[in-house]
């Protein structure tokens, strides 16, 4: 992952900030499991598992705190 | 999810802020599992599972930190 | 839940703030599982389950961060 | 729990603050499971369970953030 | 644990701060399970359990937030 | 781990900050399980386990909050 995928934490709207938080939550998974085929298999499992979906949502919530603070809450 | 669903983190009251935190916790699930039928099935499972309900509450708590800070705690 | 249940995050003492954090942790459960009978059944399970009690305590801790910050730590 | 158990978040030292964080993490358990006998039984289980001990430590860490901020990190 | 084990949150470097965060994460376990023999037995279990190691790392991360803020991020 | 591995929390870009957060999340595992062979075995398990990967992502998210704050969000 040597290309630039995160040039800035600044987004135009709260919603774009949320989408960035989702992206941030996925990159750590990619960096830990670089094989896209294995990730696809895992995705089939966790996208139909309530506990895993809630856990994903928790990670997004933590990253959204960071993105929202970076944008001074788009006030 | 290309429509605008999050125009602002600002709410009139702490209670509306809490409702926004609940919404924020659900959107990540929707973005990870876009099929509404599968989500309905999963919901039937987790809404009667104490551990899952507590985990949902944890995600709401994290988002509520963000919303409350954005609103300067409605002071 | 259309009635007002959260008029303010401001409390007179740290202890009242803690009680508010407990309330905040419970409301998300109510909003996800609105049926009081099912919640009563679930409560019987989790109030005798160490892992669930610790998880509840974690949610309270997160909300207490918010309430304490809102009250400027009652300094 | 109508008596005063939390008069202040201010402590003299970082270490006393840590002890307060431990206390804060336990009170939520007491408020959810008020029966001391059941809590004693549960304690025997979780104090010999690595996952539960780590989860307790996580709750303490969250409360310690609050107490440390309240005390301006004892700087 | 009546001796002084936490005189200050201030450290000279980010790395020493990290070591302090590790220490902070362990003390809560000691205070919950004071018997060193039981802790040694538990350690043998969790140090070879991926989920437990990740959970330990999560606690360290939370404490590191506190220590880093206390040191104004060593800026 | 007596060598210097964390001279600073300051990074040039948000992306380098993210890489530092990943590193911070791994060091706690190393400090708890110093044997590289056991860690390699564990890695084979958790890198193909969706729950573990999400948990790793949660730890990274917490550390990224710290790194982002240290860098004033690269604003």
Question: What's the layout of helices and strands?
Answer:
The structure is a homohexamer of 75-residue chains.
Chain A lengths: L13 H19 L3 H11 L3 H21 L5
Which key phrases capture this entry?
mainly alpha, 75 residues, homohexamer
Description of the molecule:
The structure is a homohexamer of 75-residue chains. Chain A has one domain. Chain A is mainly α and 75 residues long. Helix content of chain A is 68%, strand content 0%. The longest helix of chain A is centred in the last third of the chain and has 21 residues. Chains C and D meet through α1 and α3 of C and α1, α2 and α3 of D.
Mean pLDDT of chain A: 96
What profile does the largest beta sheet of chain A have?
none
- How many individual β-strands of chain A? 0
Coarse morphology of chain A: flat
As a percent range, the share of strand residues of chain A is under 5%
Largest interface: C-D, 28 and 34 residues
Brief summary of the model shown:
The structure is a homohexamer of 75-residue chains. The N and C termini of chain A lie far apart (33 Å).
